[in-house]
What does this fold into?
Amino acid sequence: MEKLIIVGGKKLKGSIPISGAKNATLPLICAALLLDGKLILDNVPELKDVYTLMEILSSMGAKTQFSDNHLEIDCSNIENTFASYDLVKTMRASILVLGPLLTRFGKAKVSLPGGCAIGSRPVDQHLKALESLGAKILIEEGYVIAEGQLIGAEVYFDMPTVGGTENIILAATLALGTTVVNNAAMEPEIVDLCKCLRSMGANIVGDGTSVITIEGVSELNSSKHTVMADRIEAGTFVIASAITDSNLTLTNIRKKDFSSILSKLTQAGISLVEDENGVTVYRDKRLKAVDIQTQPHPGFPTDMQAQFTVLNCVADGVGTVEETIFENRFMHVAELNRMNANISIHGSHAKVVGNCKFKGATVMATDLRASASLVIAGLVAEGTTTVERIYHLDRGYENIEAKLQSVGASVTRITS
It folds into this structure.
């Protein structure tokens, strides 16, 4: 079992390159299943989830080559449309193979997925949307069994769902006729997916809004696409820079990519200055606690909630955090309190009393973003922090310890 050993209290200096976005990469990989040809993706992060999804596609007969953030996927010779539980159980996004397989081959058998334990995250919205296009779906022994020719139709989501929106876009791309997706999620990663699909010959308009229209085409073409920068990784390093009173420069990212958290950064006393090198982080003499409420995009992202909780711990004042997306996303709180934080939870709300002096401790990562919050808390803590179960971290952050070491942090990965 690997862990990170962090000696806190060091001011950081230099620049950190921001990797390609995990949340954009995974649906893009699934888009390759639509092709009787090759999809080439650049700026692909080397993450556990990427390798898992590559293995899932390989088990179906796809050929993959991955090196130096360059991924080539050839799905010309898919041999089966089955995704087993053994491969799917560790990753929520694996359900995104369902739509492409069903629309291209007329059938699919995909295990119900696993992933981080931050909430139930049911796939009922995915299945309801596919049924709207005429799919016949059964759930048997933990597997989704789907078949049928898809025909364009009106799709209505009960609430914006990123994965559900991506799955129905992928499915509708090769469906007969026109599909209109209402109450669609509007995340930038969905826009990136649609940009790639259009380069493959798809007919999609409205991405980035709540209504997306897809006119089905008979086939798609081989293409090449560069994955967007990871706005969540970038936001994590912004918080790390601010709480350590550093002025890190983040490259491969633009200020506009921070739009969903920019107002809260400003309220907290953090400024982002963009130039030809990237975005540099500045802060006021004292940080200020902020109140946040997670919302679907363009609201405050749930994936930044844990990091802002750490910011509130060290800032002046009292901040409140309301989690509206997932019902079990405060598991980092108990670990932060072990490090001398003063956080109390009341249902979906957390009250964070600021001016905390973090103390190094042994803490346990419980999910991806919780892992990141513990790492950045360790950077500013007095003494040594040990973060255990960092396999969660490796699902979404590429070479995080190397990136932090490059700017002067004392972070070491060890195997116990």
